[in-house]
Amino acid sequence: MKIGEVAKKRAFVRRQSGFTNEPACYLGRTGKAAKDGTDDVELYLTIIGYARDAGFTIAEIKVLFNGFQEDKPASARWTELAQKKWDDIEFQKKRLQYMQRLLKQSMQCRCIQLEDCGRMMLAQSRNAPEPRRVTLAAKVHRR
User: Where are the beta strands (DSSP E) in the chain?
Assistant: First the structure.
C-alpha cells in the first residue's frame, strides 16, 4: 500500500469511526487483509458501526476491543457488554416511563401559582408509599 493510500484510509477511518486520532490511526496502520480479501480496517469499521447502532458509546466500544484479556473470545465480550447495555436500557425505559407520568400529570395542572403546584406535589409525595423528597442538597448536586 502506498503512503497516499494509507493517509486516505486513516482519514476515512477517523471520519467513519468517531474515534479520536490515536485509535483511528491504529486501525489505519494495521493494513492486514482477512482471508476473504477484506481489509481488517473495513471489518473493524463494521464492528464499530454495529456497536454504535446497538447504542454502545465510544468508550464501551474501546472496551470491546481493548478491555478484555486477549484470549477472551469475541462472543464472551459481546455477551458481557450487551448484558450491561441491556440492563442500562431497561433502567432508562423505567425512568422514561416515570418521566412520562410526571409530564402527563403536569399537563393536567390547573394551578394559578407555582406554589400551589408545590403544595400539591408535596401532599402527593407524603401520601405515596415511597415519598420522593427533594432536599436542598439534592438541588445543589443536580446543577
Answer: none
